[in-house]
């Protein structure tokens, strides 16, 4: 499995199109997926439905450029409806069988394809129930559950089957499906994952995980898909339906902090601007006398810019990133991770020598990256290194679609801020508060959660955890994690 050595692993990206010229569809999906590559690097695929209502698929392990290296093959993918996916596993193995989109055959109905970003929290329970009823699974990922539920539904039309299936699954999901003539999108009741609708000049519709994919295919943003919504696009145009109206928006705050591309806009909030505000508020909450602000590539550059603006301390490029870091075919070990950081980042001596440096990163997971960089900057002659993090301390895992490591591996679940400061050998360490994060993202939502899931920082999971609950409670107890005013038990 080609896997860049990263600490925070991505999730998945979905891209769908309806009504494009049959010769262009595969290429448009390719370009859309290319701009979503940061969301998943394990494998990719696309399904295109032709004028005879037949579905054609290409998928493989690896990056977009490898999977679709032979674009001559796009000639076999002609049609006006298509769905694409980039994967990073959250459930199930890393093999080809789990690379999406999946295709299902529904006797006497329609074939349909399916692509999923997110993680279902009651997948194990549902899978057992489905197998008891005779369902045969072709993958071991949670995403297949939705297709199997649609297959066994007794409802008479596809949309009713889909809605009945969506009502049974829990957790995080942004689904794209195509039938023989329709493109459909569905978002979970909390809207954990981003999903946007756009339209191209030729009238074709695009639905994608992030607006950067709309820009890539010259589509204009129309609107975000809403929690609990089912969007249907076919020859009647675009229509909306709901599988539930019992919704509560709590979009994943890590999308704004780390995962999404900074040029994307999620629910009318620019990711770059939100990160800048995180940095600026972090400066307000954690001021320090220093000479220069340095950001850790890739994802902390916006927050570092914000810290510089907020503090009045000049920003400079004290670190550079090697763009050609080797990829490895084995699972990262701690040693590999350390080597990976050292291959990836180097200090610019002229910027940090004899300076009091504020080093800004977006997050600390295990502490590997920041510990290494503090040393790098000290070795390059810095007088002091003050670490500032543009988000709160990560203490709790995610169950809704991002691969935040298990609680045991999260340094902040096991150590106080003072201890972490010692471990990483910083002169001082400051995190953004949860209140600061909410203010920085500034979603216009008046629910208890301010429209955001901040569970990774405060343990306030906005839903029950279903199949994950018992194990989580046990680990939290073992680690003595205290969930203040947990809102839902
Ligand atoms: O504490 P750690 O376990 O080292 O993890 C934290 C680091 O992981 C992420 O970056 P990553 O290197 O994954 O990718 P990036 O280049 O996109 O920032 C994040 O931005 C931090 O820099
Ligand atoms: N990261 C994701 O969104 C992954 C989707 C799905 N849970 C899988 O494991 O393939
Ligand atoms: Mg990073």
TrEMBL record:
Listed PROSITE patterns: GATASE_TYPE_2
Glutamine amidotransferase type-2 domain boundaries: 12-236
Catalytic activity: 5-phospho-beta-D-ribosylamine + L-glutamate + diphosphate = 5-phospho-alpha-D-ribose 1-diphosphate + L-glutamine + H2O
Sequence positions that bind Mg(2+): 299, 361-362
Pfam families noted in UniProt: GATase_7, Pribosyltran
EC numbers: 2.4.2.14
Associated pathway: Purine metabolism; IMP biosynthesis via de novo pathway; N(1)-(5-phospho-D-ribosyl)glycinamide from 5-phospho-alpha-D-ribose 1-diphosphate: step 1/2
Keyword Metal-binding annotated: yes
Sorted UniProt keywords: Glutamine amidotransferase, Glycosyltransferase, Magnesium, Metal-binding, Purine biosynthesis, Transferase
Gene3D superfamilies given in the database record: 3.40.50.2020, Glutamine Phosphoribosylpyrophosphate, subunit 1, domain 1
Cofactor(s) this protein cannot do without: Mg(2+)
Top EC class, one word: transferase
Catalytic residue list: 12
CDD domains hit by this protein: GPATase_N, PRTases_typeI
GO MF annotation list: amidophosphoribosyltransferase activity
Binding note for cofactor: Binds 1 Mg(2+) ion per subunit.
Keyword Metal-binding: yes
HAMAP family assigned: PurF
Family to which this protein belongs: In the C-terminal section; belongs to the purine/pyrimidine phosphoribosyltransferase family.
Primary role: Catalyzes the formation of phosphoribosylamine from phosphoribosylpyrophosphate (PRPP) and glutamine.
Record-linked NCBIfam families: purF
Entry protein name: Amidophosphoribosyltransferase
Species for this entry: Holzapfeliella saturejae
């Amino acid at each position: 499995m080609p896997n860049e050595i990263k600490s925070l692993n991505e999730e998945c990206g979905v891209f769908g199109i309806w009504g494009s010229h049959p010769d262009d569809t595969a290429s448009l999906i390719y370009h859309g997926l290319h701009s979503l590559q940061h969301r998943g690097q394990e494998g990719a695929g696309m399904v295109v439905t032709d004028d005879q209502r037949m579905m054609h698929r290409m998928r493989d392990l690896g990056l977009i450029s490898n999977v679709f290296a032979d674009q001559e093959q796009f000639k076999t993918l002609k049609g006006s409806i298509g769905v694409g996916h980039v994967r990073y596993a959250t459930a199930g193995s890393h093999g080809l069988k789990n690379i999406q989109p999946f295709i299902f055959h529904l006797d006497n109905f329609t074939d349909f394809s399916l692509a999923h970003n997110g993680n279902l929290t009651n997948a194990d329970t549902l899978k057992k129930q489905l197998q008891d009823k005779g369902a045969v699974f072709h993958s071991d990922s949670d995403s297949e559950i939705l297709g199997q539920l649609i297959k066994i539904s007794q409802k008479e039309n596809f949309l009713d089957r889909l809605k009945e299936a969506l009502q049974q699954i829990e957790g995080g999901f942004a689904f794209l499906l195509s039938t023989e003539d329709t493109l459909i999108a569905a978002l979970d009741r909390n809207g954990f994952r981003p999903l946007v609708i756009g339209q191209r000049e030729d009238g074709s519709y695009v639905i994608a995980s992030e607006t950067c994919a709309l820009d890539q295919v010259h589509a204009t943003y129309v609107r975000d898909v809403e929690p609990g919504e089912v969007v249907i696009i076919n020859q009647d145009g675009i229509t909306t339906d709901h599988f539930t109206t019992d919704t509560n928006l709590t979009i994943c705050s890590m999308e704004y902090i780390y995962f999404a591309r900074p040029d994307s806009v999620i629910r009318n909030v620019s990711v770059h601007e939100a990160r800048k505000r995180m940095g600026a508020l972090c400066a307000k909450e954690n001021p320090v006398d220093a000479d220069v602000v340095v950001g850790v590539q890739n994802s902390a550059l916006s927050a570092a810019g914000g810290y510089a603006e907020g503090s009045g301390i000049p920003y400079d490029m004290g670190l550079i990133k090697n763009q050609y870091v080797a990829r490895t075919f084995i699972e990262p070990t701690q040693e590999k991770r350390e080597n990976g950081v050292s291959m990836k980042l180097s200090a610019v001596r002229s910027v940090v020598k004899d300076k009091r440096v504020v080093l800004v990163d977006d997050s600390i997971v295990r502490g590997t990256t920041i510990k290494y960089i503090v040393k790098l900057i000290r070795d390059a002659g810095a007088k002091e290194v003050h670490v500032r993090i543009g988000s709160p301390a990560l203490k709790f895992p995610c169950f809704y679609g991002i691969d935040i490591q298990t609680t045991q591996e999260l340094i902040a679940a096991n150590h106080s801020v003072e201890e972490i400061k010692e471990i990483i050998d910083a002169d001082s360490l400051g995190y953004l508060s949860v209140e600061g994060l909410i203010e920085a993202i500034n979603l216009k939502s008046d629910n208890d959660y301010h429209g955001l899931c901040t569970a990774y920082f405060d343990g306030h999971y906005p839903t029950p955890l279903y199949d994950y609950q018992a194990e989580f409670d046990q680990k939290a107890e073992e680690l003595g994690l205290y969930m203040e005013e947990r809102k839902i038990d």
